[in-house]
C-alpha cells in the first residue's frame, strides 16, 4: 500500500514553490465536480465523498446547482497534498457561464482539463481550452470515466491532438477496459497502480505480463515524442537511446510550462481511480506562483512589474464578488506582498481606500479565518465595500493597476418587472446586486418602453439569474420572452461622402469639413471590435488632433445603426480630406462632424442586419436522427456534419440563437428524453429578410 502524503501543516510553513493555484476545466458532465470531490476527500479536506447525483458535493453548494446537477458558479477550495497547498477552482462547463471560467483563468497559474473517455473533446472542452490558451495557462489532461461502456483512451487522446492542436504526452496505460477497468500503468516508473473495490488507496505492483510489451512500446513512444520537443532530452536520448525517469519528468514539466505539450493521465473519478497520480502530476508539472512571470500593471502611465514576493508591496486582483447572509465576500488573488486583518488597501481604479476586516481561507460555502494572506494565496476578504470584479487592491503607498478580466458582451435579453408595485424598488436593488456579482449580466432601462431589461450570455444564464432573485429575495417577477442582440453591418459602402458641420450662435462658432470613405471590413481582419479607422489626409488639411476627434465621433455613431438602432460592426472608415477654419474649428466640432457624418454615410450605404448564431452539437439515438434534422431545418439551422458513435448520432449545426429558445424541452419530447445538446457562440451571420422585416425598431 502507498504511504499517505496528506499533511495538516499550516500555510506559514508552505513556501511559494509549494503552492499550486489551479482550475478544473471541462465540458458539461465530463466529471469536473466529481474530480474535485475526490481531491478534497483524498487530501483530507472532507471526510465523506460527495456525489453530484445526490446533491452532496462541496463545490456545487448552491441550491440551483444541486437541483440542475450542473456547476453554475466557480467555487474555490483549498487543500494540502504532499506538503503543497493546492488552491483549486471548480469552474462551470456550460457555455452560458463561460465568463465565470474567464475570470477564474485570469488568476490561475495552471489547470487540469477533464475529458470524457467516451466523448473525447466536446465543444465546450474546446472552448475552455482556447480560453486557457489566451491566458497562457499551463495544463495537464485527465481522461475520465474509463469505466464507462465505449470508453477508449486512445480515441480521446486522438481527439485532443486533432481538435486542440496540441501534443498529448500520455504517461499512463489503463489496466482493464470499461467495467473491468481497475487501474493504470505508470509509464515513468513502469509500475502498476491498482484500486481494489472498497479501498481508497491504490496498491503498487509490477506491470502485468500481458501489458508489459505494450507498456514498453508506449514508454518508448513517450521518450521519442519528448526528445523531439525538448533540447536537453534530445541530447540525452541521442547519447543513451533512452531517457531516465528524472530526465523525462523534468522535460515533461518544462513542456507543460511552455505549452508545447500536455501531459495526459487517465482514470475514473467516480470509482476513485486515478486521483492520487493526478495530484502527484499537479505537484510535479504545474507551475507554482514563482514559476510564472511577475504580474504586470500600470502606474502613472508606465508599466511596472511586481514579483511574487511576500515582502514586496501588496497587489491583488478581485476576481469574484459574492453577497452572503454574513456579509460581502471579495475573492482576491494575492500576486505580491502580504495583507493582514486591519490593513488599509487602495482600490487602484476608483482611488478609494478600504480596510480589510477579516481574511478567510475558502472552502466553497465554508470558510476558515486566517490572520494574513501572502503572495500566491487565493482568499476571500470581508470589509471591502465597493471594489467590483476586476478591481485591483494594492498598498496605498505603492499604487498599481492590473489588467482586469475581459467580459463578453451579453447576447440574450429579457424584460423583467415586479408583480407588485411595492416590490419595484426591491427588484431594482436585487438586480443591481446581481450585476455586481456577475459582470456578464447587464441591467438597463429601455428608453422607449420604460421596461427594466436584463441581458446575459444565454437562456439558461438568465433563468438562473431570475431564479436566484426569487429565492434570495422572495420576489415574484414577470419575465418577457427572451430577445437576442442584433448587429448591423455595411454590405456596400460610399466613397467621397462630404459632411460639413457649421454652427454660428453669436460667440465662437463651430466649423468642420470632412470627406469619408465607408466600406465593409475585410472578414480576414482580426479586429475584435469590428471597426477600423484610418486617415489619408495630406498637407496638414486636417491636424492630427482633429483626426483623432473624427475617429472618436465615428465610434460614437456606431452605437445606433440606420436599420433598427442596433450597434454597427464590420466596417472601415477612411478620412480622405477635410478643411478647417482658423477660429471656429475645434476638437468638439470635428467629433460632432464625425458622429453625424458617419450616420449620414451609413444611411447612404447598403446595410444588413446580423443575428447571433451558435454552433449546436446534438447527440441523439440513431432512430431519432431524421426528426432532429427536420427540427433543425425548421429552426433555420445549417447542418455541418454528422457522425455515428455506438448507437447514437452526433449532429453539428449552426443555428440562429433566436431559434434555440425552448429547444431543450422540444428535443426531450422528440427523443423521449434521450437527446442532449450543447451550444457555443459562433459569431454573427446575416439575418434573412423575414427576420429583418419583423424587427422592432
Automatic annotation (TrEMBL):
The keyword NAD does not apply. GTP binds at residues 26-33, 90-94, 144-147. Keywords: Cytoplasm, Elongation factor, GTP-binding, Nucleotide-binding, Protein biosynthesis. Its main location: cytoplasm. Pfam families: EFG_C (PF00679), EFG_III (PF14492), EFG_IV (PF03764), GTP_EFTU (PF00009), GTP_EFTU_D2 (PF03144). It comes from the Bacteria. InterPro entries: EFG_II, EFG_III, EFG_III/V, EFG_IV, EFG_V, EFG_V-like, EFTu-like_2, G_TR_CS. SMART domains: EFG_C, EFG_IV. Residues 17-290 form the Tr-type G domain. The keyword Protein biosynthesis applies. Residues 673-697 are annotated as: Disordered. One of its GO terms (molecular function) is translation elongation factor activity. It is found in: Cytoplasm. Catalyzes the GTP-dependent ribosomal translocation step during translation elongation. During this step, the ribosome changes from the pre-translocational (PRE) to the post-translocational (POST) state as the newly formed A-site-bound peptidyl-tRNA and P-site-bound deacylated tRNA move to the P and E sites, respectively. Catalyzes the coordinated movement of the two tRNA molecules, the mRNA and conformational changes in the ribosome. Belongs to the TRAFAC class translation factor GTPase superfamily. Classic translation factor GTPase family. EF-G/EF-2 subfamily. HAMAP family: EF_G_EF_2_B. PANTHER family: RIBOSOME-RELEASING FACTOR 2, MITOCHONDRIAL, TRANSLATION ELONGATION FACTOR G-RELATED. This is Elongation factor G. The gene is fusA.
